[in-house]
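hey
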């Protein structure tokens, strides 16, 4: 996680004020989590987690992934990423952890708050390891020459990496959504979304924070 942006977002959040009762109640509840202390804990956890810096999309969710035409029945389906608004050099774990988080969210809802959450849709360990193996095989040409034990060791290490960084994804988008609740004119339940992301953060923190 590029620390400067979440820290800037946190500073903005701590200076916000809301007038509407419904938003104010949710905002006060979120502030009750002691977000600065959580930020410090998360920063320490990620500093202890090895993750290479690579070029990242940073918003790899369903609306930004296209299946190329004519690939629907292909054995090797090809995907294309679009919308690089948030792309930058970042930690690999954040980009993949963020993608796994997005499995839980459906943004196609036509009624308020215009999203749905299904925590059970977060990828299983088997699904994550399948994704990670495909990533490593494509990113490292020497991966196939490793023994099964060496491959599994790399996959297990990366599994821990991306799930720790998934906490950063929830934290980052939670802060972002609080700010959007104050500034954006788009019809979306930003404060509700912020609550959903921090709910997921604290749930996953039980498993991945040490």
């Amino acid at each position: 996680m590029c620390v400067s942006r979440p820290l800037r977002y946190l500073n903005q959040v701590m200076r916000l004020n809301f007038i509407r009762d419904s938003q104010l109640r949710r905002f006060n509840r979120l502030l009750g989590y002691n977000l600065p202390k959580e930020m410090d804990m998360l920063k320490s956890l990620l500093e202890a987690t090895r993750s290479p810096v690579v070029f990242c999309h940073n918003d790899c969710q369903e609306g930004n992934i296209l299946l190329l035409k004519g690939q629907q029945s292909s054995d090797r389906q090809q995907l294309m990423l679009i919308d690089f608004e948030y792309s930058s050099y970042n930690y690999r774990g954040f980009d993949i952890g963020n993608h796994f988080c997005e499995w839980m969210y459906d943004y196609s809802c036509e009624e308020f708050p215009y999203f749905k959450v299904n925590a059970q849709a977060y990828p299983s360990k088997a699904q994550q390891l399948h994704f990670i193996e495909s990533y490593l095989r494509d990113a490292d040409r020497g991966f196939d020459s490793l023994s099964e034990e060496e491959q599994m060791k790399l996959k297990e290490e990366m599994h821990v990496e991306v799930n720790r960084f998934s906490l950063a994804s929830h934290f980052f988008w939670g802060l972002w959504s609080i700010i959007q609740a104050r500034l954006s004119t788009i019809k979306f339940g930003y404060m509700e979304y912020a609550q959903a992301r921090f709910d997921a953060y604290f749930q996953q923190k039980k498993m991945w924070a040490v």
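Strands lie at 53-56, 65-67, 79-81, 88-91, 105-106, 116-117. The longest strand covers residues 53-56.
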